Amino acid sequence: MIELAPSILSADFARLGAEAQAAVEGGASVLHVDVMDGHFVPNITIGPPVVACLRKVSKVPLDCHLMIEQPDQFIPAFAQAGADWISVHREACVHLDRTLHLIAAHGCKPGVVINPATPVIAIDEVLALVHHVLVMSVNPGFGGQTFIHSSLKKIELLSKIRESRRLGFRIEVDGGVHRDTVADVVRAGAEILVSGSAIFEQGNPSENARQLLKAALDVTKQPVQDLSSVVGGSAAGERGNSLRLP
Ligand code: DX5
Ligand code: ZN
Hints:
Layout: E1 3-6, H1 16-25, E2 31-36, H2 48-57, E3 62-67, H3 75-81, E4 85-89, H4 96-105, E5 109-114, E6 132-136, H5 151-165, E7 170-174, H6 182-188, E8 192-195, H7 197-200, H8 205-221, H9 224-231, H10 233-242
Parallel strand pairs: 1-8, 2-3, 3-4, 4-5, 5-6, 6-7, 7-8
The chain binds D-xylitol-5-phosphate and zinc ion.
């Protein structure tokens, strides 16, 4: 199932509740909350009090992406504030297995995140533990950056591993997702699409969300015969199948 998870990082914080609600009205079904500590990434954003405020105005799952060092110290506070999903970076966790169990023990869905320079193999041992894998398609720290195309191969690989091992994790992508890149990430196998600047920076968040979600869903509806006319023969079936979501 394709879901849109607007990143509130690019929202107008003075109108955060209304902006988040507008995105949800446009079809977003998750709200992505970027937490930065000024150490793991060169930027500082928000903490549990803002999550608690969002919790009061929205019922959709709050997806807290912790770009922080020593996340174990803060997981209880985010859970208490109302986070539903909490993801931590492979690169920030020495004892990743323990941290993922800690998230689950606090009643939240655990996720693991990999930076553009981190290969999928680095999280191989925890794939059975996580609710979602978040593939960064920019270097974390800022909104509005350019999509890094090598992340597509990692999304494809995760999709294949999930199928071959019959695992249940969901695949999320974060960074540079907008109307020009959304089709590629959906074709690669991403299903939870984080998007910040494309939703909140210009125009109406509700309409922006609606259009981006429609563009993503249109990819999944593309009929097999569309490709058969392009490639022909038995290869047509193979290409067509590769467009479908797992
Ligand atoms: C980057 C954050 C992203 C960011 C995405 O560190 O994790 O969630 O807000 O913003 P866009 O969609 O503008 O790349
Ligand atoms: Zn994020």
